[in-house]
## 1
Amino acid sequence: MTFPKDIALDKRIIFALDVESPHEAREWVLKLEDRLKFFKVGLQLFLAGGFEIIDWIVKRNLEVMVDLKFFDVPQTVASAVAQLRDRGISLTTVHGNDAILRAAAAAKHDVKILAVTVLTSLDQGDLRDLGFQCSPEELVLSRARRALELGCDGVVSSGLEAPRLRNELGEKFLVIVPGVRPVMNQQDDQKRVVDVRQAFLNGADYVVIGRPIRQAADPAGLISGMQDEIHSALLEL
């Protein structure tokens, strides 16, 4: 399994449509589609708009990442993943143990499966509270290695762990980095973050960005600046 690394610059940023209504989502797509060609539909928007908003985006020749973090008994997850087939959806996320990931990978058909490793809103203290005695980096690497062995196409990981993923697991899988901020000190509920340039230098194939763009005074200008940073970083690799 190999993945091309000549991903178009306007697809490197996946814009998170974490908004309250399909109407607001459409407004953002129309506003940004000249600059971005990849959009994420998460739990909030999917519950508000279902497959209708996904189909609408796909029909505009744009790519979609369905980020529902499927986590249930394996057969239920397999059945849920199967519902995404033949809709033009590019990526979806699954969160769970080996049996769950294996079931999702077996049912994926034309949708690439991304295993969620450790949420970027969690740090060492949060993991300790959850009963984990290892570092976030060790847990991410362990989960990523198992996910790839089970047939997943890539992982969702903080940019902080991306270098070790690449060093130890190679290039033949996708690394999607959420929690990315235009500059390092702009944080909210995200704890393990990097900036856009560093994410790609560390090994990201895509970054997921929502609030920094939505809250920007000039979203288009911010996107252009980040794309320049991405292009510069990729030239260094």
## 2
Amino acid sequence: MGELPSPQQVGSLETIDTDTKGKILARSDEATTWDVFQEITEIFILLPAMLGMKGNLEMTLASRLSTAVNVGKIELANEKWTLIIGNLGLKQLQSTVLGLLASLMAIVLGWIADGRLPLDHVGLLCSTSVCTTFVASLFQGIIMVGLIIGSKRIGINPDNVATPIAASFGDLITLALLGCFSQWFYSFMDLYSYVLYLLDLFLLCLIPLWIVISSKHAASRLLLRTGWEPIITAMVISSMGGLILDKTVSDPNLAGIILYAPVINGIGGNLVSIQASRISTHLHLNFSSGKVPEDRRRCQQPCGTFFGSAGPNHKSAKVLLLMVIPGQLIFLYVIQLLKGAHTMPSPLFTVAFLTASLIQVFTLLCIADCVVHCLWRRGKDPDSYSIPYLTALGDLLGTALLSLTFLLLWCSGDVGGV
């Protein structure tokens, strides 16, 4: 399974994440002033679902390939490339289908919330979502394969680096493409709206090709039949968080939440994904499917996740939780720089934001300990099932806690200190 990530190693991951998240925050703040975001507010419902979904697909791919590396399943060149190509084909299929489903979910929730939705908005949302997921999935899949193979060659455990980098670059690429595609399609929506539907049709016609490619390997062929439940469920959960975000952003007093939502959700998803991937690799190496340690046959009390019998997963949980405060303080400083300010937010906001982040990550780590072992006990691969559930819960919990934080600060008259 590799060595436990030290605080310095995890800190380096946070530094990588800071750079990419900083770019995300700059794009988020600027993009919200574009015409398409002002006119088609359903994009705010689509945004968390898109970011969560792409993160899920990249992180489950990274987790599966990292486990395959650690247990020695890609030593032979023929087996390695069959596994990689099969997984990439599966991911293209999932991204196309889920991109369409995410847009339909945003359309339904937007219609329920506003009571109306013009037809041209429907076409733009569908085309933007499908094109973004397709292109982002292609680029990110290639990056992840290169990263994991490179980590293996230089002796780094991919579990410690692949999933957080997958989430970071996944957010950056997806957000950039979402903003660019939506604004581009909006610019010619009135004159050439039929082009949007032709794009959707073309990408959907590629689905049979991805099915054939993903069927070439036994593992991806199994996921082709059974791997839809967690990612679709995760998309629905993330959409609920998007609905909360849409309603919060619509209030001018709380609109600043759009800057902080990617931070709290990104940190929570990254940290819990590292933990879930490590626990999964530990189970693959030491236990047969359906068998779990004696102390994990039932879900533990929250403290059992951090304090228990000697083992790397308890230590990593404590290290990851301890990284929340310094990591978020760095992000708060980056946000202030992007806003052109040279001082930190008010002490009350800082304490409230850090408290929300700690509650989120503590809860996610406890849930991960339970969910990963429960999935393994039931004969399901946690690499494919646990991360979508955990990151989606992280998005929903993070958005809800952040909205509550902003609401409480507004009631106390402190939002101006943000």
